[in-house]
Amino acid sequence: MAPIKPHRACGACGFYKGRQVLVTKADIKVKRTEKRKKQEQKEKERMAKLKNK
């Protein structure tokens, strides 16, 4: 009888049984770029307010 393989999440996407259980480098990169864009937008708005005063 063959040994039963352990449960394993996909190393590429981080999913197991249809749910994301691991945070991948790609996920981290996407979140980082979204955060940077949001921060840049806030900075632009702040500078526009200072210019209008």
TrEMBL record:
Residues 31-53 are annotated as: Disordered. One of its GO terms (biological process) is translation. One of its GO terms (molecular function) is structural constituent of ribosome. The keyword Ribosomal protein applies. The keyword Hydrolase does not apply. Keywords: Ribonucleoprotein, Ribosomal protein. It holds the Pfam family Ribosomal_L32p. Residues 40-53 have a biased composition (Basic and acidic residues). One of its GO terms (cellular component) is large ribosomal subunit. InterPro entries: Ribosomal_bL32. Belongs to the bacterial ribosomal protein bL32 family. This is Large ribosomal subunit protein bL32. It comes from Candidatus Falkowbacteria bacterium RIFOXYC2_FULL_48_21.
